UniProtKB/TrEMBL annotation:
PANTHER family: FAD SYNTHASE. Pfam families: CTP_transf_like. This is FAD synthase. The lineage of its organism: Archaea, Methanobacteriati, Methanobacteriota, Stenosarchaea group, Halobacteria. The gene is ribL. Its cofactor is a divalent metal cation.
């Protein structure tokens, strides 16, 4: 167990050089919900500092485009106390922000389509020394709790559309 600067306990390994261990999370984060908090809290527990890459709208091609603009999604993630820094993703080369942040561990979301082994291979090819791990999912804790942006939008359309 180590300790974050704010005193929160983490299960992160200590770095031998005493530098803060940097964890990296990423995603779209359109219309924040408790599933996002669960992911970011779990990712933060892997390090002393949590950085988040927020996907550019143009790069969200595997599901409907986000409703909120890039900058708004980045600013909302940055405002969460568990997050040390939120970065807008690069328009073309995903390794540009990764190189800048220089993470010790990349934490993938429970349902993200990225494959751990392919990312680890790509990182090694880029000469970036980072572990890759995956967070757990969070199920609703009570009736009607909304843990997906898509579900929030569906309910919004059903109730207000
Ligand atoms: C290591 C890593 C780096 C990424 N860097 C960027 C980036 O620079 N720009 C970007 O638009 N998306 C980037 N992405 C992609 C998105 O953040 C996100 O993974 C993808 O859109 C899936 O998002 P979702 O979980 O919200 O569905 C990166 C993903 C990974 C795994
Ligand atoms: N219920 C949840 N439990 C744990 N992690 C979650 C949950 N919902 C989203 N996440 C994680 O948050 C990150 C960003 O997710 P994303 O912005 O795609 O949210 P989403 O609500 O799943 O979106 P959509 O409903 O549009 O697919 C991803 O890593 C995703 O795995």
């Amino acid at each position: 167990m180590s300790e974050r600067e704010d005193g929160a306990a983490t299960d992160a390994d200590q770095r031998p050089d005493g530098e803060p261990r940097v964890a990296l999370a990423q995603g779209t984060f359109d219309i924040l919900h408790p599933g996002h908090l669960h992911y970011l809290q779990e990712a933060a527990a892997h390090g002393d500092e949590l950085h988040v890459i927020v996907a550019r709208r143009d790069n969200v091609t595997h599901k409907p485009k986000p409703v909120c603009p890039d900058r708004q999604r980045r600013d909302m993630v940055a405002a969460l106390s568990v997050v040390d820094e939120a970065h807008l993703g690069h328009p073309e080369d995903f390794f540009v922000p990764v190189r800048d942040i220089d993470p010790d561990v990349i934490v993938l979301g429970f349902d993200q389509h990225h494959d751990e082994a392919s990312i680890a291979d790509a990182l090694a090819a880029e000469g970036i020394d980072a572990e890759v791990t995956r967070a757990t999912g969070r199920d609703p804790g009570y009736d009607g709790e909304l843990l997906s942006t898509g579900d929030i939008i569906d309910r919004l359309i059903a109730q207000r559309g």
